[in-house]
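User: What would this chain look like folded?
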Amino acid sequence: IDARAVDTAKVEKSIGQGETSHVDIEGAGLLRAEERRLSDRVGARLRSHGWETSTIAIKLRYSDFTTITRSRTLPEPTGVSQRIGDAARELFESIDRILPVRLVGVRAEKLRAVGGAASALWDDDGEWRRIEGALDDATARFGVGAVTRATLLGAHRGDGTGSRPSSGSRH
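Assistant: Here's the prediction, encoded as structure tokens.
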């Protein structure tokens, strides 16, 4: 018998999004588009919970199931998808992809409530926050996928087919 109160509140330590493809992905353009799409999802989830992140991590699983991860601490915490995507892209570009890829993942770590840090003299992300706020509102009103980046549509996907890897798993 333990007289202590039970705390059932769950504290999130990270928010991630990953996609496993049924086929090997070789095209760098398709990988970049997938990384951006996943970064947008991570950013939207952060904003919906009122969090921001100070560390971005990526995960790649090759066709031989070798898995590698990389992470980077940001200069300032953010919930802006554009910043998350930029950091993820830098991490992806730092990896020599020697084999086709099966899984791509983006994760936000070291979460904290929005506004937990001292405010900067000016806000470099103010414009992105307004844009992403409008996108979040459109998603809430019309559903996921109602608004997306033009680079994620059609032939701009990087492989000429407009297709994306199937979503076998989500993290």
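DSSP finds three helices and four strands in the chain. If you want, I can go into more detail on any region.
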